[in-house]
Amino acid sequence: MTHRAAPEHTHPDKVPLITALDALGDPVRLQLVRELAASREWTRSCGSFDVPVRKAALSHHFSVLRAAGLVEQRDDGPKRVNRLRREEFDERFPGLLALVLRGD
Amino acid sequence: MTHRAAPEHTHPDKVPLITALDALGDPVRLQLVRELAASREWTRSCGSFDVPVRKAALSHHFSVLRAAGLVEQRDDGPKRVNRLRREEFDERFPGLLALVLRGD
DNA sequence: GGGAGTGTACGACCCGCATCGAACAGTCGG
DNA sequence: CCGACTGTTCGATGCGGGTCGTACACTCCC
Asked: Which domain holds residue A19?
């Protein structure tokens, strides 16, 4: 046994607007979302992102992104791979994700 | 003479996305924007908003909103009246304001 | 001119958050 | 079974942002 505890997710439907704005209002998390959006689903492990923070902080940021309904995670061997919740999040906050990914 | 110094404004065009998200990611400022959106332009003075902070903090929040290109201010006698920059801001960040004003 | 009203500037305080290092848990491959 | 790798958790730290009180500037009206 000894399964790893599944990460706690929050569906975008239950996310207050201010939580979403707050989650996206951080440079590191914004970068994570953008980089994740540019990758195929379930291909990026947490440590594979180009952000200037150590893994402890990184783990924290992913926790915030999960709580904001932006990211879904799944265990894949020793790694934890990620997926951007495009459709669900966009249905809850139409256009917000598009705005974030619109570069500039 | 002794004109009052005109408040410093930033046009939405020059506002980075993260600045806008950060400005809207605060409960007090979110309330200010919403309340302002529900009023006719140039009718609300800074002190006329129903927020649980004193005027020093209030002044700070309006400074942030100006810097984010969300609010325009004009001196009207002893008061300083406000206007939500709907069109300009929406052109810069399409849909974001709508999202904020969509209540829920 | 004086007083009331409005908003800004300044300094101080404080709480929260982002960060880190280290220790731990789980997984896989040799 | 042991070591390398990945990510979480914990406690500690530092700093930035939100808040306040006070003092100040400006405007209007009496």
From this structure: 14-101
